[in-house]
Amino acid sequence: MNVIKVKNCSTCGIAFDCGDTPAGIQCWCNGFPPIFSPSDVIDCLCPVCFKSACAAKIDEYVAGISPQTAPGNKAKDLPETTNLLEGIDYYIENGNYVFKPWYHLKRGFCCQNGCRHCPY
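^ thats the sequence. predicted structure below, dont judge the formating
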């Protein structure tokens, strides 16, 4: 039987649901890139704090990527996800999706379209 646990965020302290749902759906956090090690946080984070921490980790990682190191980056080796996450993979500008460097790194190659945030 799957159990939803109510936890308090280790950053902001608010209560949130954590864990598998009774319908057998995995925890919401499984939809994010697996970039945290257990020592990075004290305990689970709420969705808002988790997204913020995930975006900060990704921005830190991307800052160290150059066109020379982009082809060997670890993002392309992560499990593929079907959902794009606003603030992680893209942002909206004037009604248009603008893909962030993380999205391009996950793809694993340059598409030669002159993307604004292409790390390749």
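Residues 67-120 form one domain.
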